[in-house]
Design a protein that fits this description.
18 helices, single chain, eight-stranded mixed β-sheet, alpha/beta, Rossmann fold, about 425 residues
């Protein structure tokens, strides 16, 4: 969830401490430390974190170091395409009810074509240990930063759509080196952040079948390949689906999971939402709030998922036009879009113009606009009709964070 997750990078870090508390494994520092920690993350702190992971600790015959550098020709072509965008006329309303507004996209395009610098993002990425390993015939790219604390708890963190590893960069320093942010050494994590198959720097599957079920098994293989015998998992959006399936599969060593987009919706609520009917009687205020959020999303915000679930290959336009790709990605849900519109209108938010364009540019440079969408199609093929947020019946420990700007704020009663 690009805008939501970028906005809540610091909140995800705070939330991960709940995993440790829930499992009784360790106690991470107080929330004031967490807020300060994220505010202090810089390229320098990320570089310092890299020192904690000497490359020979990870690199093996099965695991290869990874480095990415876009060519000057690629970046020049991107700027040329953005500048040459053929614009439609302005929307006929004064709000976002018809979609991404022309003024927002033109401000985004102007900054992208003239002032934005991908090389800054590229430098941050290449300052962090990255690797590739082949699992079930597909190259899986991942970040792996070890803490200097030998007793650190390993965690595998999974992004979603239209997200990427870029969303997680700000949490690496505080998790691997909490001492540098006012915390304690025993609060440390070893951090593993993979790119989903078909996303970012991971390989693109050449046949159907990569779903949260197969990805969950691949992540267990990855953690085993890295030598971890005990670990936790975290995710939101597709990352939640993968983490919850891992909890169902219970691979050896998985102690529990944390999610910031939990599947908690009761059966009667899910049925009512699918039928477009009124909410069930007797909902509390928190439950009614969650119903209203989900009802709005299903009625007005789900079109992107429906299209990619049914016809992802049809979306040639977002593979050919960078502005088309950016518009498709930022029209994810109304709260995310309005926040992004404010950013490009000069207002200060929990993310910057570069945060947004770093993520979109990664999709463009890796040509993953369509390959990433196939995850929706593949998953639909194994669907039993259950909703994305339906209860899974997990048996191992789970920690849930309920942020107000997720698609829905999971009520404590449902979780």
């Amino acid at each position: 969830m690009t805008a939501r997750n970028l906005r809540h990078n610091w909140r995800v870090f705070r939330a991960i401490r709940l995993v440790a508390i829930a499992f009784g494994l360790l106690v991470v520092a107080a929330s004031s430390y967490a807020q300060t920690a994220i505010q202090r993350v810089t390229t320098t702190s990320l570089t310092n974190a890299v020192v904690l992971d000497a490359m020979p600790q990870t690199a093996t015959a099965e695991i290869r170091p990874f480095h990415f550098s876009a060519t000057d020709a690629q970046l020049a072509d991107l700027r040329r395409r953005v500048a040459a965008t053929k614009w439609p006329e302005r929307e006929t309303v004064n709000d976002a009810t018809q979609g991404v507004q022309l003024a927002t996209m033109q401000k985004l395009a102007q900054y992208w074509a003239t002032d934005y610098d991908w090389r800054k993002c590229e430098a941050k990425l290449n300052a962090i240990p990255q690797f590739v390993t082949t699992i079930d015939g597909v190259d899986i790219h991942f970040i792996h930063v070890r803490s200097k604390n030998p007793n650190a708890l390993p965690i595998i963190i999974t992004h979603g759509w239209p997200g990427s590893i870029i969303e997680q960069l700000k949490i690496i320093g505080p998790l691997t080196d909490p001492v540098a942010y006012g915390g304690k050494a025993e609060d440390s994590f070893d951090v593993v952040i993979p790119s989903l198959p078909g996303y970012g720097f991971s390989g693109k599957p050449t046949a159907p079948g990569w779903t949260p079920v197969t990805i969950a098994r691949a992540w267990a293989t990855l953690m085993q390949r890295l030598g971890y015998t005990r670990y936790v998992a975290q995710g939101g959006d597709w990352g939640n689906a993968v983490s919850e399936v891992m909890a169902l599969q219970q691979p050896p060593g998985l102690l529990g999971i944390h999610t910031n987009m939990a599947a908690t919706v009761p059966a009667d609520v899910s049925k009512g939402l699918s039928l477009g009917g009124p909410p069930p009687a007797g909902l509390s205020d928190d439950e009614k709030h969650a119903w209203d959020q989900l009802d709005d999303f299903y009625k007005h915000g789900l079109a992107y998922a429906q299209e990619m679930s049914n016809r992802p290959q049809t979306l040639y336009g977002i593979a050919d036009s960078p502005v088309g790709l950016a518009a498709w990605m930022i029209d994810h849900d109304i709260r995310s879009y309005l926040m992004i519109a404010r950013v490009f209108n000069g207002q200060t938010e929990g993310l910057t113009r570069d945060d947004i364009l770093d993520n979109v540019t990664l999709y463009w440079l890796t040509n993953t606009a369509i390959s990433s969408g196939r995850l929706y199609w593949d998953t639909r093929q194994i669907s039993n009709g259950a909703g994305f947020f339906d209860v899974r019946g997990l048996k191992i420990p789970v920690a849930v964070s309920a942020f107000p700007d997720e698609i829905y704020q999971a009520p404590r009663s449902w979780t």
